[in-house]
Structure formats: structure tokens, C-alpha cells
């Protein structure tokens, strides 16, 4: 366990006694569902010849098909460079600019086409159609401001803490135009969490907004910027400029004072840069496009580095073939851009293809559960992308709502967590009206884009399974000893990928050893080898593979809990809990949750002489909200007299998870204090 001020910087070698995968329910095999002839006839990947093009013998050259979707300033000479495993390099020698590929090159044919249609939460505010021309103008102006006012240079890191407003993709693209590395922190994360990420990335500039709407409230967001800057300063990182967008131009929605010389309203400065153009900086394919922080096994978050050429090719290619985006489609991905799904499948993939995307502020169920379907009907959305938690929530609060609206989806996606077959069927029958193909896309922050998914026109769907590996990606399940767990064996194991792919992250920012240890050391066959075949990627997920080759993801096998598709590290939760002075020890465990898939329960002990009280549990909740954000709020906090421990004083979370989930607690004979197990069980299970 780590104290808050004693962040664990060891490489995170997965070593867990309880994992999400272990608490997963057992599913039976499900029958196939088939795409309609109408869908197949129009699909981007309708010809089975594509499978041959991406076969293992054509690896890695097959990925030219994806790279050729982009406009390169200089073509690459080496498709895959494996000289420094596992730091793979793709399209070496190539040069390009991501912003140019997402904006400028569409102007000739599609200047007046909407890139984004943005739906604000208040229903009296107008929907905004941001054309490619308008996006071009706004990105250029903001890039000029970043460069000439904020001093941002190629290679600098810029932290963004923006909600779901058009300014977010504009700021990302402006950074990309300059060759600066953006690091967007999910707006729901606390100021402290944002500050830790600023300090790790050593950003000198923070871009934020005064406030935004969520479920009827105008939230004060700028206050978090002050906390973030203070937190970064404690870690020796000085933020020189805070650029504050205003949700309503000219009106300030925050109580936080503007700090003289540090904080600036963007709408005050932008007029100086009106119509200013900034030439896109031609970047090497391997230059880092952005950082995306995610949780791992230690308290310190991991800044996953994504490349410009490989990443952009990969998200463009997978958007084309797995989301089946055509120029005339209207696409709506429900994710927040603050997560990898939004980066890859709201911003970079769809824009690289010149897509019209819907973006919205607020939540799907406010003011009522009909909101998504009203928007889909009004804007003619035909591709819909969301998560199991959203589907479960919409089913619960408005099971009959979709039928009231006249929209038609050709394709729907689910991402981020395992989907229960019953929920899948409701998605298919009720939201998809039995017409839409579903792609269940399995992937991760680290992987840049989809890894497991069936090609929508060429393979049937199976509820609860993400399908086989995607084009050019060859997954395998290994057991703990590195032996292949064969398809159809019914045995679970660790989901791994045998080969590199262009979207794979380049490393963890400033933690190269942790990168190698966490993802490659476990199954590396020979650390001296330069052959990618000796370096399988370990995903940290448990899975089973059916006889037909389809994978079913069970959940994490490491110290990560996936709550509503948001990754939380048990160590981060425990560190936050330990900031409460009365708490002596803490353990976070996953529990099954009807709505969010998994939820977190905290077990804590108190320091000697401290009496249990609701004030203490409230303090724990508050501490977690302050350190991480409201999304990490535990479902229950159990104050107990002692935690089950081994003789070497290691807390046995597995036993606590067994109690929380009413499942077998397993062997307790190796415990130093076996008597506490019954005591905790009685107290907790009685209270549930
Ligand atoms: C889980 C989100 C089952 C998995 C894109 C993974 C899934 C983690 C699926 C990554 C899916 C993602 N089915 N589980 N289709 N997609 N996961 O980094 O446990 O936020 O390791 O990336 O979500 O979460 P992350």
C-alpha cells in the first residue's frame, strides 16, 4: 500500500490477489446474429479479399492500406522498424501533419460540410454546425494564439482540461498543427488529478473553461484550474499561462478570480489573431501527437504516448472499416473526448476521413431519456457509438423511448467494458430496431484503436463477444506460464497480442522501464531478440476464446477496476483514502454492479483511539473526489477492525472481494488473522 505522499514509482508488475476477471459471471455460448443484405451491399469492407490482404504473411506491409488513407509530406522508407524492441517504430522516414490531415485537406471538396454538429445542453441554446471551413479558421487562430501569445513551440506539452465543447477539438488540432503534444485531462477529473498530470508532462500552459452544463447545472470548472496549478507547483512545475475559454463569450461563469499575468480569457485575446493562418508543421511519423494518462498498478498515472503517423493511420483505417463511415454518414460517438475513445473515434479517426460528427454537452438522460433519440432523429444520425453503462442506464430509465422516435441506425458500437448478452439484445432490438449491425470493439488507451472486433459485413455478431482480432492484429490467450490456451478449451487466460500494430503506444512518458515491464516483460521470450515474434503485448485483460475464434473479455487481471468504462487504479483509490488523517489502512475491491458493470468498495481501518462514524466515511468519499474525481466515488465504505493479511502483512483484497460479491473467499489458512474474515463477512453481508 502507498501513502499519498509516497507515490510508488516501481515498475508495475501485475501481482494481484483479486481481479475483475475473477469476479466475472460465467456466460453460456450465444447464437450468432447476421448483418442485413442492405448493410453488406454498402459496407466499406464488403469484399472478403481484404482478409487476405491483412493476413499474417502480408504483415507489416498490409498497414500501407491504412497509411494510404492519409496525405503525407514525405513517404516513409521503412514500414516497421523493430531495431529497439519493444519500442516499435512505424512508417519511419515519413512526414505529415495530423491537423492538416484532419482539416486542411478536406477544404477543397468539403469546405461547407459540417465537421461537428454540437448540441449544447440547454435546449434554448442553438445547435452549432461547425463546417470544415469554420474549423480551419478557428484552429488557425487558436494555433496562432498558442504560438505567438502563449509561447508554445513544437514538442512542448500543453495540458487541456476541457469539457465537451467545440473548443476541445479545436485546441487539440491547434496543438497538432504546431507539432505540440496535447494532454487532455477528462473534465470530470479533479483539479488535483489534473495537477499531477500537468507536473508529469511538465506543461507550461493549461487550457480550460470557466464552466459547462451537466444535468441542469452550470458547473464551475475554472476553480479546478487553480487547484491544478497549485498542485503542479508543489511538484516543481510552474504553469505560466492559463488560457480560459468562456462558455458564454464575455460572461464569466466561475467564482474563481483571474490571476493577473497568469490567467487570460481566450475571447479577449483571440481578436488579435483574427483570420491569421499558421502553416502546419511537417512532423516525423514517429513524433508524439499526444499523451493520454491512464491508471495502472501503481499510484502514479501513466502518460501513454501516441505517435503521429502510426496512430493517425490506424484510427483512420479502423474508422473506415469497423465504424463503416462513408462521406455521407452522420456519426455520433457518445464518449467524452477526455478519454481515448473520444480522441480516436470523435476527433482523429472521423476527421481524417472528413466525417460529419455529432458532439453533445450534458448527459444522455437529462432532461429525459428521450434526448439521444430526439437528437438522432433531428440530425439524421445513422452511426451510433456508445458504452454498455450508457446502454444499461438508458434501458433502465427509458426502455420504450427509442420506439417513439424516427431515426435509423445502420451501425452501432459498444466499447469500454464487457456487455452482458441481455443488454446487448436490448441494444440490438430496441435501440437498433433490429436493423443495425453491432460492433463490440475491445481495445485500450494504450492500443490507440480497436484490437478485437468482427468486420461488420463479413462476420456475424455474437452477443457478449468482441469477435476475432481486427485486420492485421493477431491476439492470443496465454496462461501464466506462457502456454497458449487453445480456442474452445473453455479456459480463461491473459489476452495478449502477438504482433505490433501502427496504433500501439510508443511508451509511457518518462517511464520507459515501466512500459517494458508492464506490457512486454511478462511474455517476452528473449530480451535480446529483435524479432517482434518474441515480444507479445500483454493487455492486462482476462479472456476466453470460443472454438470459432471469437474472444470474450472478462475484465482486468491487474489492480485496475473498470467502473462504467473508466479505469481506476486500486492504489490511486487507496492513496486518496489514506489522505484522511483518521484512516490507518485501506483496500479497494471491485464489485459487480447492475448499472456500471463494476463498482468500487473500500475497506478501511482506523487509527487507534478513533471511533467509527459517518463523518469518517464522508471524509473518505470527499478525499477520493478531491484526489481523483466524482467518477471514482466508492459504492460503499466499510470500516472494519482489521483487514485480512498474510503473515508478511500483505492485505488480501481477494478475500474482501469475495465478501463484497457474496462469492467464495478462497483459502484463508495462510492469513495471519483468519478470525477477521468471519467478522467482516457478518458485518458487511448483513448490511447489504
Ligand atoms: C475494457 C477504452 C470488454 C478492458 C477503449 C480494457 C472492454 C479497458 C472493451 C481499457 C470491450 C474496453 N469489451 N471490455 N469491448 N473495451 N474494455 O483504456 O478491460 O479506458 O483493458 O480504453 O476497458 O479501458 P480504456
UniProtKB/TrEMBL annotation:
Which region is the signal sequence? Answer: none
Note the coiled coil stretches, chain numbering.
none
The AMP-binding enzyme C-terminal domain sits at 572-650
Which family does the similarity line name?
Belongs to the ATP-dependent AMP-binding enzyme family.
The name of this protein is Acetate--CoA ligase
Q: Alphabetically list the UniProt keywords.
A: Acetylation, ATP-binding, Ligase, Nucleotide-binding
GO process terms (BP): acetyl-CoA biosynthetic process from acetate
Identify one Pfam family in the record. Answer: AMP-binding_C
User: How would you classify this enzyme at the top EC level?
Assistant: ligase
Matching entries from NCBIfam families are given as: Ac_CoA_lig_AcsA, PRK00174.1
Concerning SUPFAM superfamilies, the annotation shows: Acetyl-CoA synthetase-like
Q: Which EC numbers characterise this protein's activity in its record?
A: 6.2.1.1
Domain spans labelled AMP-dependent synthetase/ligase: 105-509
GO molecular function (one):
ATP binding
Q: Per the database record, which ranges form the Acetyl-coenzyme A synthetase N-terminal domain?
A: 53-102
Amino acid at each position: 500500500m502507498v501513502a499519498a505522499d509516497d507515490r510508488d514509482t516501481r515498475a508495475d508488475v501485475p501481482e494481484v490477489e483479486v481481479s475483475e476477471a475473477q469476479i466475472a459471471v460465467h456466460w453460456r455460448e450465444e447464437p450468432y446474429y447476421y448483418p442485413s443484405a442492405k448493410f453488406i451491399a454498402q459496407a466499406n469492407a464488403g469484399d472478403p479479399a481484404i482478409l487476405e490482404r491483412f493476413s499474417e504473411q502480408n504483415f507489416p506491409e498490409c498497414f500501407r492500406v491504412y497509411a494510404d488513407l492519409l496525405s503525407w509530406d514525405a513517404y516513409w522508407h521503412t514500414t516497421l522498424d523493430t531495431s529497439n524492441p519493444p519500442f516499435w517504430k512505424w512508417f519511419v522516414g515519413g512526414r505529415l501533419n495530423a491537423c492538416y490531415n484532419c482539416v486542411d485537406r478536406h477544404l477543397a471538396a468539403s469546405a461547407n460540410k459540417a465537421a461537428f454538429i454540437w448540441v449544447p445542453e440547454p435546449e434554448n441554446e442553438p445547435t452549432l454546425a461547425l463546417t470544415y471551413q469554420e474549423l480551419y479558421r478557428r484552429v488557425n487562430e487558436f494555433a496562432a494564439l498558442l504560438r505567438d501569445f502563449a509561447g508554445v513551440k513544437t514538442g512542448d506539452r500543453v495540458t487541456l482540461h476541457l469539457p465537451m465543447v467545440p473548443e476541445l477539438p479545436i485546441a487539440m488540432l491547434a496543438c497538432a498543427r504546431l507539432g505540440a503534444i496535447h494532454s487532455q485531462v477528462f473534465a470530470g477529473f479533479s483539479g488535483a488529478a489534473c495537477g499531477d498530470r500537468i507536473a508529469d508532462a511538465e506543461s507550461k500552459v493549461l487550457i480550460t473553461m470557466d464552466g459547462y452544463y451537466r444535468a441542469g447545472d452550470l458547473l464551475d470548472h475554472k476553480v479546478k484550474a487553480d487547484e491544478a496549478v497549485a498542485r503542479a507547483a508543489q511538484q516543481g512545475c510552474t504553469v505560466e499561462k492559463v488560457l480560459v475559454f468562456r462558455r458564454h463569450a464575455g460572461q464569466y461563469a466561475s467564482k474563481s478570480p483571474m490571476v493577473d499575468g497568469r490567467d487570460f480569457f481566450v475571447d479577449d485575446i483571440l481578436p488579435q489573431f483574427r483570420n491569421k493562418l499558421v502553416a502546419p508543421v511537417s512532423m516525423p511519423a514517429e513524433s508524439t501527437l499526444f499523451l493520454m494518462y491512464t491508471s495502472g498498478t501503481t499510484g502514479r498515472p501513466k502518460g501513454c504516448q501516441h505517435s503521429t503517423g502510426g496512430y493517425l493511420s490506424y484510427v483512420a483505417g479502423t474508422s473506415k472499416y469497423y465504424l463503416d463511415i462513408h462521406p455521407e454518414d452522420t456519426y455520433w460517438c457518445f464518449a467524452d473526448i477526455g478519454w481515448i475513445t473520444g480522441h480516436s473515434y470523435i476527433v482523429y479517426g472521423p476527421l481524417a476521413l472528413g466525417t460529419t460528427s455529432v458532439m453533445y454537452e450534458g448527459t444522455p438522460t437529462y432532461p429525459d431519456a428521450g434526448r439521444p433519440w430526439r437528437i438522432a432523429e433531428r440530425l439524421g444520425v445513422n452511426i451510433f457509438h456508445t458504452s454498455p453503462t450508457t446502454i444499461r442506464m438508458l434501458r433502465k430509465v427509458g426502455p420504450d423511448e427509442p420506439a417513439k422516435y424516427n431515426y435509423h441506425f445502420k451501425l452501432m458500437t459498444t466499447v469500454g467494458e464487457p456487455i452482458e448478452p441481455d443488454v446487448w439484445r436490448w441494444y440490438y432490438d430496441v435501440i437498433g430496431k433490429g436493423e443495425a449491425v453491432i460492433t463490440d470493439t475491445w481495445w485500450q488507451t494504450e492500443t490507440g484503436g480497436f484490437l478485437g472486433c468482427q468486420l461488420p459485413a463479413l462476420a456475424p455478431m455474437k452477443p457478449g463477444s468482441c469477435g476475432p482480432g481486427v485486420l492485421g492484429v493477431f491476439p492470443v490467450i496465454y496462461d501464466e506460464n506462457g502456454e497458449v490456451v487453445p480456442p474452445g478449451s473453455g479456459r480463461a487466460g491473459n489476452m495478449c497480442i502477438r504482433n505490433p500494430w501502427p496504433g500501439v503506444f510508443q511508451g509511457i512518458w518518462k517511464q520507459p522501464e515501466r512500459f517494458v515491464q508492464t506490457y512486454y516483460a511478462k511474455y517476452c521470450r528473449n530480451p535480446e531478440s529483435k524479432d517482434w515474434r518474441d515480444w507479445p503485448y500483454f493487455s492486462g485483460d482476462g479472456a476466453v476464446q470460443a472454438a470459432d475464434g471469437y474472444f470474450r473479455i472478462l475484465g482486468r487481471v491487474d489492480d485496475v477496476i473498470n467502473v462504467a468504462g473508466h479505469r481506476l487504479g486500486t492504489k490511486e483509490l487507496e492513496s486518496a483514502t489514506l489522505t484522511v488523517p483518521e484512516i490507518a489502512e485501506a483496500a479497494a475491491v471491485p464489485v459487480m454492479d447492475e448499472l456500471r458493470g463494476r463498482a468500487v468498495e473500500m475497506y478501511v481501518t482506523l487509527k487507534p483511539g478513533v471511533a467509527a462514524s459517518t463523518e469518517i466515511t464522508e471524509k473518505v468519499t470527499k478525499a477520493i473526489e478531491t484526489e481523483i474525481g466524482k467518477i471514482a466515488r466508492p459504492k460503499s465504505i466499510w470500516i472494519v477492525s482489521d483487514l485480512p493479511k498474510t503473515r508478511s502483512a500483505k492485505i488480501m483484497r481477494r478475500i474482501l472481494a469475495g465478501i463484497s460479491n457474496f462469492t467464495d473467499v478462497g483459502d484463508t489458512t495462510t492469513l495471519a488473522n483468519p478470525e477477521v474474515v468471519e467478522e467482516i463477512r457478518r458485518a458487511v453481508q448483513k448490511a447489504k
